[in-house]
Amino acid sequence: MSERIAFIGGGNMASAIIGGLIKQGVLPQNIDVVEPSEEARNQLHSSFGITAQAQASAALAGAGLVVWAVKPQAFKEAALAAAPFTANALHLSVAAGINTDSIAAWLGSERLVRAMPNTPALVGKGISGLFARAGVSAEDQKRVEQVICTTGEFLWLDTEDKLDVVTALSGSGPAYVFYFMEAMTTAGTEMGLEREQAHKLAVATFAGASDLAQTSAESPQQLRQRVTSKGGTTAAAIASMEDNDVRALLIDAMYAARERAKKLGAEFGAA
Ligand SMILES: NC(=O)C1=CN([C@@H]2O[C@H](COP(=O)(O)OP(=O)(O)OC[C@H]3O[C@@H](n4cnc5c(N)ncnc54)[C@H](OP(=O)(O)O)[C@@H]3O)[C@@H](O)[C@H]2O)C=CC1
Ligand SMILES: O=C(O)[C@@H]1CCC=N1
């Protein structure tokens, strides 16, 4: 991968992808970043040795791939500022909600893939949903795969609206897992463990259960039943969750996330 890659926005998600690229041998001098925040530019320099620009300029013209990693609210302004310098590039957007009709209109380009990654990308264990606009060639799709696979797994979607579902599931999903970890750590601490011990147990439990679910031929439901001895402790915990409708609450939370993705698109997308 010797072609230049530009990032518009150099915050959390851009850093996660840049980290993956650098680990795979992409040289920092082949990565351009446009980032208005001085603090974020300093962070990019100390983490990766990248000197980011405060605003879009002709320096972007050499990029074969441009990754759009700005907040949905800032996308249109950023796109209109950078579009004059990125006419020949393949574009990859990771912004939640903003649909490719809007982005293609702002950029004047059909060579556009929309992705929804997640923050485990930081440790190479992310998963991304991808959707390619009709103007994207098989070769361009391969190029996007080469970049995204440095952050973990990926899957292609046949319709763009499914990306809002991916956003609600795996895009926001790490936050749901951390939320459970926080609650389990709090309860463990309240019941007498040291906070560090409770944290270690909570994190290891999620890691172990994930590995088991990934390698086992059994479904999560079957795996859950294997933990649940008749009349035992897990049965008491699951009964408490069912009484409190935790499953329905989680499902509602995902619908809320998908709804927000759609609203972001309606509010900050469109020409
Ligand atoms: N964080 C996550 O888990 C995920 C995020 N995403 C998507 O990634 C995108 C970025 O999110 P995230 O990295 O978390 O956000 P961050 O706020 O960490 O990063 C965005 C950066 O873009 C900068 N920025 C603002 N305006 C412009 C501009 N005109 N040109 C260039 N850069 C600009 C911001 O600067 P300043 O702070 O000064 O405004 C900020 O540093 C979002 O669209 C989000 O939906 C997708 C999947 C997961
Ligand atoms: O919260 C957000 O809007 C972004 C998109 C998915 C994860 N973070």
Give the topology.
Elements: E1 4-8, H1 12-23, E2 31-34, H2 38-48, E3 63-68, H3 72-82, E4 90-93, H4 100-107, E5 112-116, E6 126-132, H5 138-148, E7 152-156, H6 162-171, H7 173-190, H8 195-215, H9 220-227, H10 233-243, H11 246-268
Parallel strand pairs: 1-2, 1-3, 3-4, 4-5, 6-7
Antiparallel strand pairs: 5-6
Bound molecules: NADPH dihydro-nicotinamide-adenine-dinucleotide phosphate and (2S)-3,4-dihydro-2H-pyrrole-2-carboxylic acid (A1CAB).
Task: Describe what you observe in this structure.
Catalyzes the reduction of 1-pyrroline-5-carboxylate (PCA) to L-proline. NADP(+) binds at residues 8-13, 69-72. Residues 4-96 form the Pyrroline-5-carboxylate reductase catalytic N-terminal domain. Pfam families: F420_oxidored (PF03807), P5CR_dimer (PF14748). InterPro entries: 6-PGluconate_DH-like_C_sf, NAD(P)-bd_dom_sf, P5C_Rdtase_cat_N, P5CR-like_CS, P5CR_dimer, Pyrroline-COOH_reductase. The chain is built from 11 helices and 7 strands. Helix 6 crosses helix 11 (246-268). It is of the alpha/beta class and 271 residues long. It has a 7-stranded mixed sheet with strand order 2-1-3-4-5-6-7, sandwiched between helices. The protein folds into 2 domains: 4-158, NAD(P)-binding Rossmann-like Domain (Rossmann fold, 3-Layer(aba) Sandwich), CATH 3.40.50.720; 173-261, ProC C-terminal domain-like (ProC C-terminal domain-like fold). The mean pLDDT is 96. Helix 5 (138-148) links the parallel strand 6 and strand 7 (152-156). The protein is elongated, with a radius of gyration of 21 Å. The longest helix has 23 residues, at 246-268.
